[in-house]
Amino acid sequence: MENMSRSSVPASRSIKVDDYLAAACLLPNLQLLGGAANIEKQDGLPAEWMDTAFPSENKRATYLAEDDLDGLPLDLADFTSFFEQRKQRVRVRLLAALGTTPGAPEDAALS
Questions:
Q1: What angle do CA 32, 3, 61 make, to 5 degrees?
Q2: Rounded distance, CA 22 to CA 25, Å?
Q3: Which helix (H) or strand (E) holds 21?
Q4: CA-CA distance, 45 to 65, in Å (whole number)?
Q5: DSSP one-letter code for 77
Q6: What is the pLDDT of residues 60-101, one digit of tens each?
Q7: Exposure of 65 by Cβ count < 10 A (0-12 exposed, 13-18 middle, 19+ buried)?
Q8: In sequence order, what are the residues at sequence separation of 6 or more whose Cβ sits closer than 8 angstroms to the Cβ of residue 42?
Q9: CA distance to 37, 55, 58, 90, per residue, from 28 (Å)
Q10: How crowded is residue 75: how many other Cβ atoms within 10 Å of its Cβ?
Q11: pLDDT band for position 30 (50/70/90)?
């Protein structure tokens, strides 16, 4: 979240900095990473970390697919769009893991 100050939040967007900060702590933006990787990832924007952590295009593509990170933006300009898309992908995976379908009572609890 410290990176918010050195990253440019698009002025043309109607979303406020507080909205970005609030979304940063919600499920669609979270990942479970080991201690060192988690600290390294917090030190920069996702694209910067990806280039360092996964220098091979093949490994990067695998990581993005396995963690529902398709469409990961290079900066904050497309964060909200990515956030909403990933939220839906995580929801679908969670419903599948629970053995239920959209519209079931379990689904209402995830909305």
A1: 45
A2: 6
A3: helix 17-24
A4: 18
A5: G
A6: 899 888 888 888 887 778 888 888 888 888 888 888 888 887
A7: exposed
A8: 2, 3
A9: 18, 24, 24, 7
A10: 14
A11: low
3-state secondary structure of 32: coil
What are the backbone angles phi and psi of residue 65, rounded to the nearest 5°? -70, -45
Q: What is the pTM of this model?
A: 0.65
- What is d(CA 44, CA 61) in angstroms, rounded to the nearest whole number? 19
AA identity, residue 13: R
Joined together, the tokens standing for residue 41 give 């990832």
- CB-CB contact of 1 with 24 (8 Å): yes
> Six-digit token pair at 45?
């924007």
- Hey, what are 13's tokens? 């967007």
pLDDT at 49: 83
